[in-house]
Amino acid sequence: VQTCALPIFVLKAPAIQFAQKKHAFTQCLMRVTDMYMTSRVRVGSYFLDDIQDFFKENDIFCMENVQFTGKSGFHHNYDFAIQRSKDKPERLCLAINNPSKATMSNALFAWEDTKPFRKADSKLIVFLNDAHGISEGIENGFESYKVNPIRWSKRSDNLDLLTA
What we know:
The chain is 37% helix and 19% strand. By secondary structure, it is α/β, with parallel strands linked by helices. Helix 3 (101-114) links the parallel strand 3 and strand 4.
């Protein structure tokens, strides 16, 4: 019989900050899970690194790992923010290594919570790692909220959306 000792995570916070801290902790756990899946699927290369390399190769200039506060008071992290230009709006980007209903829901909540504090024409772009397929309905779900899903295998087809 094999046993496995799982790590125990504890978060301490004052009661007044409980909701915000719980939200941040949940986001952290989801990211760690996503990174764990990445290490299993793509040894030696992380999805975010691939996106950064793609941006550099195509002269897409952005800020990395930005955070905005939503109307709920929760803080939401975005992997990239592409600055607005004369012809294009601000574009916030999320990388989703394992597209699922749960990761879609989390991204949509963050966007709907953050959007009221961004310019009216701001957009969300989600990069979906489709190396092992994407569950049915994920792309349509994003599109229903006017979010731009980009399959990683079709990233070059979407340069116009990403460049200034």
